[in-house]
Amino acid sequence: MRGQETGKEVAQVAQREEKRQRGLDLLRVVSMFLVVILHLLGRGGVLAASPYGSGAYQMAWLLECGAYCAVDCYGLLSGYLLCRSRCRSEGLVRLWLQVLFWSAGLTALFALVWEPVSGKRFLASCLPVVTEQYWYFTAYFGVYALAPFFNRLIAHLSARSFRRLLAVGFVLLSLLPTLAGQDTFQTEGGYSFLWLAALYFAGAYLRLHGRVRRHPLWYLVGYVGCVLAAWGSKWALETVSLLRTGAVSGGGRFLTYPSPLILGAALCLFFAFSGLKLRGRLWGAVLGFLASASFGVYLIHVQPFVFNRWLDESLAWLPALGGWRVLVTVPALALGLYLLCTVLEWGRILLFRLLRTSALERRVGAWLDHFRLPEPEETAEKP
Asked: Is the CB of residue 290 less than 8 Å from the CB of residue 25?
């Protein structure tokens, strides 16, 4: 009887993990959608073209505040998903081939169809990590490569020690730089390996010791509160600056990836989505596919030629239509761009299956694994 009860408990835990995984898959999709919104607002020229104090200005920055936590969500997800995985080099090789395909492939396409590209520029597209074609991939590459070392440390931390480590990291990397208004510990506003590594540890803690204690709606309320606080802080700081100096400045102090408000918004979204109960195989299949294609969405629309030639100032006309048009049109265009990139990424996935790149990934990954640190459970002393 005891064995049957244990079996039921294991099955229940497995079901809860599967439902949580679906919720986190949805978070990956939503986070990438928010990233697209960020880039349309910034690179698309909406923020720059919105006159200060206008309805378009307020609505554009409200969207910006709401979407800014997307990168932090991805960092938390990395730690949550990888802290108990083996982090085989095969996964890193697979990721690198995906990045190479879009970085070099779109560069070659641009050179063939539009205008010539220098050999130096094409070489840079073939070395995306070293040349930082994608800042996030470069930072994530470092985190993934060091994940076995991180996991070894995490495995030997008690919950109490882990909380102390996160508290010190929060004060040094988030709270103090935000309050001081300067990059005290060189996190580069969150565009760095250091901040992504800090998020990895936070995500790992959520996996090992975190619990969803309230209904997801409460966490969504918390997310909205953080977004409105960030939006309000920008308005307040700019108003004070305008009254004191006659110029608008300093409004972005709480709009950085390490900002406590942005980090708080990311944590609220993480708990909200991990607490969702998404049942049904169809949900699992659809979300699984969309989540697996989400990184491809990033690689396509942020590819330097796409980002700097096609997206650059492409929406500078929008603020003239008014604030509500901005609030509706930017998410709608972001959704369209997201779906287009998803279709293109689906084509790449099919092509890689046809070419059977998985065999190459396994061989190269197996060779690289000889140089990696074994996982904690493999090196633990036997009793």
From this structure: yes
Distance CA 166, CA 120 (A): 42
**330, 63 Cβ separation under 8 angstroms:** yes
* pLDDT (0 to 100) of residue 283: 73
Q: What whole-number distance in Å separates Cα of residue 298 and Cα of residue 34? A: 11
Task: Encode 154-163: b = buried (16+ Cβ within 10 Å), e = exposed.
Answer: bbebeeeebe
pLDDT tens digits, 337-379: 999 999 999 999 999 999 988 888 888 888 877 766 555 554 3
Rounded CA-CA distance 230/163 in Å is 26
Structure tokens at 44: 């698309």
Phi, psi for residue 285 in degrees, rounded to 5:
-70, -45
- What pLDDT, on a 0 to 100 scale, did the predictor assign at position 6? 47
Whether the CB-CB separation of 29 and 36 falls below 8 Å is answered with no
Domain ranges within the chain, ordered by starting residue: 2-375
Identify the CA nearest to 250 among candidates 234, 266, 265.
234
Bigger pLDDT: 112 or 229?
Answer: 229
Taken in order 103, 305, 50, 330, the sign of the CA dihedral is negative
* Residue 380, pLDDT score: 38
Residue 347 CA to residue 206 CA, distance in Å, equals 35
Residue 292 CA to residue 294 CA, distance in Å, equals 6
Burial of 229-257, coded b for 16+ CB within 10 Å and e otherwise, reads bbbebbeebbeeebeeeeeeeebbbbbbb
Rounded Cα gap, residues 62 and 80, in angstroms:
29
Mind giving me the DSSP string for 69-98?
Answer: THHHHHHHHHHHHHTTS---HHHHHHHHHH
Q: Which amino acid is at 215?
A: H
Q: Give the amino acid at 247.
A: A
Cα–Cα distance for residue pair 353/292, rounded to 1 Å? 14
Average pLDDT over residues 6-24: 55
Render pLDDT for 47-79 as a digit per residue (tens, 0 to 9). Answer: 999 999 899 999 999 999 999 999 999 999 999
Of residues 244 and 373, more confidence is placed in 244
